[in-house]
Amino acid sequence: MHKTQSRGDETTGLSEWKKRAPYKIHDPSEHFEAKYEASCHCGRVKYQLNRVEPLDSKLCHCTTCQTQHAAPFQWAAIFHKEDINFVNGHHDLEWYDPTDKSIEHKLPCKVRCSYCHSPIMDEGRNMILLFPSLIHFKTKADRLNFKPRCHMFYGQRVMDIPDGLPKWDGLNDTSNLIEDSPPDLVREVEQKRDKERAERFEKGGNK
Ligand SMILES: [Zn+2]
Ligand SMILES: [Zn+2]
């Protein structure tokens, strides 16, 4: 099949994805309690969220996000796939996998509105990283729930953001904390890694 015809396609069938989270439309009997409403720029894609606080909220400075979002960095909030309910336009989506540069639906991939091309979310294997800029926040408290908690791939940044938040050189939790990261957290991570190193050494020595 030609690449342009495979848009929205995947190996298990053209329409399989529509029946699965995060794309499946919740049945009224599931009592999906909408805490937030969101839409893309053109309004064709609309969704709701039933979780008040995201599992995490972060700013990514990697060069892929810079290119894909045409922005100095990207703001993403992590949710379970079951936390989202598309109420409109969930068939008007397009995918892009930056690793394989493929437009087929395979995970992980980036999800956009196929009309206005607003980035909607990154769909991972288990979670979704959605872009809170699309949410219509009604109160300041609502917005505060989505306040970024860390910076990742800060080593690739185009600008400094001296906000005192943790700043990971690469991926959060596995790379190093740099710049004005909270000193307590830097110490905590160092101690944790020293301990892990010692444990690894002990295990190796006991073989
Ligand atoms: Zn749109
Ligand atoms: Zn990124």
**What is the CATH topology of the domain at 1-53 and 72-136?**
Metal Binding Protein, Guanine Nucleotide Exchange Factor, Chain A
What is the overall silhouette? globular
Unreliably modeled segments: 1-11
Please describe the biggest sheet, giving its number of strands, its sense, and whether it closes into a barrel: 7 strands, mixed
Task: Supply Rg.
Answer: 19 Å
Q: Can you give the helix content as a percent range?
A: 10-25%
**Residues in β-strands, percent:** 15-25%
Heteromolecules bound: zinc ion
Order of strands across the widest beta sheet?
6-7-8-9-4-3-10
Overall pLDDT score: 90
Number of strands: 10
What is the H/E string? EEEHEEEEEEHEH
Overall SS class: alpha+beta
How far apart lie the N and C ends? 53 Å
Please tally the helical runs, counting DSSP H or I stretches of 4 or more residues. 3
Under CATH at level 1, the class of the domain at 1-53 and 72-136 stands as Mainly Beta
- Any idea what the CATH architecture of the domain at 1-53 and 72-136 is? Beta Complex
InterPro entries: CENP-V/GFA (IPR006913), Mss4-like_sf (IPR011057)
Pfam family, one: GFA
Protein name: Mss4-like protein
Keywords: Lyase, Metal-binding, Zinc
Describe the structure in your own words:
The protein has 207 residues and is α+β, with helices and mostly antiparallel strands. The chain is built from 3 helices and 10 strands. It has helices at residues 63-69, 140-145, 183-205, and strands spanning 36-39, 46-49, 56-60, 74-80, 84-88, 93-96, 109-113, 119-123, 127-130, 150-152. Strand 8 and strand 9 form a beta hairpin. The chain starts with 35 loop residues before the first strand and ends with a helix. The structure holds zinc ion (ZN) (2 copies). One zinc ion (ZN) binds at residues 60, 62, 64-65, 74, 153. One zinc ion is lined by residues 40-42, 44-45, 113, 115-116, 118.
